[in-house]
Structures are given as structure tokens and as C-alpha cells.
Specification:
It is a single chain. The chain has 410 residues and is an alpha/beta fold. Helices cover 33% and strands 23% of the residues. The strands form seven sheets. The chain has a six-stranded mixed β-sheet, with helices on both faces. The chain has a five-stranded antiparallel β-sheet with strand order 19-23-22-21-20, covered by helices on one side. Strands 12-14-15-16 form a four-stranded mixed β-sheet.
């Protein structure tokens, strides 16, 4: 129990429970592990770096406390949200909370999370974006480099109770034009004009349309996720390429073009890392390595990736031709509702050498059986197992086998 914490009468705290300083547990609660505390009383991140919860826990009241906690990691914070009223209200409450604790909060007109992340990069400031607050809230935090905040910053937020005295030094301001800046920068990063059609009606889709030369005769159709980070490609024949496959395609193109310094996101397919090894390229892993300022990250989000793919699309007639250049790989996932502290479970897996060829950087990653696996927390008591193999059936079997071994440790 941390200093100043309170446990209500009749509560039962199970083995391994951690109560952070200043936390309060209502009377009659049954708690087993720090990750199962009522969401109102603490901040928790999922495996993708988003604040974990739902519409019943991520409330305006919570957003205010979240803002006060955020003031503990930076004196200046950017924020934005999707245009629906619920998301705007939650973002405003966050800003009020941060300002009340003395932070200078600045609202920007980012239409999606990727645009807010780009603003963080431009202004070297952390930031927060709220989306879909009325139904399935997603609260995403980004660091001054424009990438999801690192685990150390997450821990500082999780450990903070947001109980700051009112400060008269905080402020709330705003600026506009960040979507335009992202679009202009993504265009400049491309080698040629991007000719393709864009599907979707989201704000991110509208932004992507401004990067492309919308050619009705183009065989390629681009789709981008609501948050602006994930891209997919299809053609008239119905062939598709996922974001992971497009990352591989860009990696292959860059390596064939003579580049020997590659930036890959931490969750990139293992096939991309193998390609880099074949060309003896130096790989900076985003989320693990510090990215040199002089190295341009064209996989930063779906907009930069789309622009970087322009010369590949220009030389291909269909998706099948692009896929033919890449080593075949398939992925499968399995989620495990562990009911226990997932970090302790992962430690147990390491101690028992269940996955001896895996590294322990942010979960477990590495060779397993006939392929590769990546195991990481997915929020709450959930562990996500991602397997990658040269055929789909083997990937599914690998994911299921790794999940079974983890279940035996519970």
C-alpha cells in the first residue's frame, strides 16, 4: 500500500496487489492485482500505448484527472480530438485538468491521431488525442518525437494520482494548420507523385486524398485507418496488401535502391528485418532505438508511407506484381484473458525458458518453432500472441501453441 492510500471497509486485496500512493478503494471491493483496480482510480495503458478503458470508465471526470496527471510529465502539452461532441468535451476536460495543475496546454486542429502525433514532432512537445469518446473511447499519448510515449513516461502517468493543488500559472491556447503541414510534409517526402484512388469517408481518408493524384484509371485503391496510422492497398482484381506487407515492400524498395540505413517500427513483420539482414543494412527500431535526426522516417504514419510507395505503384500493374517481390509471410493472432498480472506471467515464462530464443524487449519477441512470435500485453489482463510464418496454417498453429504454453503457467 502506497503512502496516503485508503482501503474501504470490507475490501479484499489479493496477492500481488499494488496500491499506488494516494489511491482510494471503495468499501467492499475485491481486488486481485493492480491492473484490476476500478478505472476511476488509476491510469492504465494497453499494448498500443493508449489509455485503457471504455465509455463507463473514460469519462469527462477521468479526463480532468488525466490532464492533472499529464502535467507531471511535461509543462507543455498539445491536444486535439475527433470532431464529435463527446470527444471534444473529453479533450477540453483534459486541457482544463492539465492547465489547473500548471501546464501550458495548446489545442491544434489535428483531424486524426496521426496528425496530432506529427504536431508533437514539429513542436517537440508531448500530446494527447481523443477519438470516438461516445462509443469506444481511445485516448492516445505521444512523446516529443511524435511516437507513442515510452514505457517510462507511461509509468509516471500510471503512478500519478493527479492530486495537484490549483496553479495559477497554467494556460490554454490554440493554433491551426497542422493537417496542412502534415500533408505538405508527406508530399515533399515522396520521390514521385502518388497516383491512386482513395476509399473511405473518415477525416484521415479525406487527408489522404489530398496527398494523391486521384486517377480514376489507376488500378490501385488506398485505404487508411481512422487514426491515420495504418494503410492498406487493393486493386480491381480484389488482391490486397496489409500495412505490414506495405512496410515490407517499402523496405525492399529502399534496400534495392541502395539505402543501408532503415527505420522499422517495433511491430514490423519479421520478414522486413530479415530483408535488412540480407542487405547488411543498419536497422533503427522505432520504440527501442533513438532515431537520428538526419534519418527520415517514412513509416511514421499512413500518409508518409503512402507517399513513399509512389514509385512502387508507378512501376506495377497490380498488387500481385508487388507481392511477387517480397518473401511470403503470414500472421495469426491469439488473445489470452489471463486473469492475472500479465507482466508477472511474462516473467514466469522467461524464468521457465518457455521461449528460449526470444528477447525480452517490451514483451517477448523472436524465433519460435518454424517461425517467429511476438507476445505483448494488450490491456488489462489480456496477452496478445502474434505469430509469423511462411504459410497461414503454420502461423495459426504457432500462435495457438504459444498461447497454450502461456496458459499452463497461469
Amino acid at each position: 500500500l502506497g503512502e496516503g492510500s485508503e482501503v474501504g471497509a470490507g475490501s479484499c486485496l489479493g496477492e500481488g496487489t499494488i496500491l499506488w500512493p494516494g489511491r482510494s478503494i471503495p468499501s467492499g471491493s475485491r481486488i486481485s492485482g493492480s491492473n484490476t483496480l476500478p478505472k476511476r482510480y488509476f491510469i492504465e495503458f494497453d499494448g498500443e500505448g493508449r489509455v485503457f478503458g471504455d465509455s463507463s470508465s473514460l469519462t469527462a471526470d477521468f479526463a480532468f484527472s488525466l490532464g492533472r496527471a499529464a502535467a507531471s510529465i511535461s509543462p507543455v502539452i498539445l491536444y486535439s480530438s475527433e470532431p464529435d461532441h463527446a470527444s471534444q468535451t473529453m479533450a477540453a476536460c483534459f486541457a482544463a485538468g492539465a492547465a489547473s495543475a500548471g501546464a501550458g496546454t495548446t489545442h491544434c486542429d489535428a483531424s486524426c491521431a496521426a496528425s496530432l502525433a506529427f504536431a508533437c514532432f514539429l513542436y517537440s512537445s508531448p500530446g494527447m488525442f481523443v477519438s470516438n469518446a461516445a462509443a469506444a473511447p481511445a485516448v492516445s499519448f505521444f512523446g516529443p518525437d511524435g511516437y507513442p510515449i515510452d514505457r517510462e513516461a507511461q509509468r509516471r502517468l500510471e503512478a500519478s494520482d493527479g492530486s495537484y493543488l490549483f496553479s495559477g500559472s497554467g494556460s490554454i491556447s490554440s493554433f491551426t494548420g497542422i493537417d496542412d503541414a502534415l500533408i505538405a510534409s508527406a508530399k515533399r517526402s515522396g520521390e514521385t507523385e502518388l497516383c491512386a484512388r482513395v476509399s473511405g469517408i473518415s477525416k484521415a481518408s479525406a487527408m489522404l486524398s489530398r496527398i494523391t493524384v486521384n486517377d480514376d484509371e489507376s488500378p490501385f485503391i488506398l485505404s487508411i485507418s481512422r487514426d491515420g496510422f495504418s494503410l492498406s492497398l487493393s486493386d480491381a482484381a480484389g488482391e490486397t496488401m496489409s500495412h505490414a506487407e506495405l512496410l515490407c515492400a517499402l523496405t525492399y524498395y529502399d534496400l534495392k535502391s541502395g539505402k543501408r540505413t532503415i527505420i522499422l517500427p517495433e511491430n514490423s513483420p519479421f520478414a522486413a528485418f530479415r530483408l535488412a539482414e540480407e542487405f547488411n543494412a543498419k536497422v533503427f527500431v522505432r520504440g527501442i532505438n533513438k532515431i537520428p535526426a538526419e534519418v527520415q522516417d517514412r513509416s511514421r504514419d499512413g500518409f508518409f508511407l503512402a507517399s513513399a510507395l509512389a514509385p512502387i505503384l508507378d512501376k506495377a500493374a497490380n498488387v500481385a506484381q508487388i507481392k511477387a517481390l517480397l518473401p511470403p509471410f503470414y500472421t495469426a493472432e491469439a488473445d489470452i484473458d489471463t486473469g492475472v498480472d500479465v507482466k508477472a506471467l511474462l516473467r514466469r515464462a522467461v524464468e521457465n525458458e518457455v521461449f528460449p530464443q526470444c528477447s525480452t524487449s517490451r514483451g517477448l519477441n523472436g524465433r519460435y518453432g518454424t517461425g517467429h512470435i511476438r507476445i505483448k500485453p494488450a490491456g488489462g489482463d489480456i496477452l496478445r500472441v502474434c505469430a509469423e510464418c511462411s504459410d497461414m496454417e503454420a502461423a495459426r498453429e504457432l500462435a495457438a501453441d504459444a498461447a497454450d504454453k502461456l496458459k499452463k503457467l497461469i
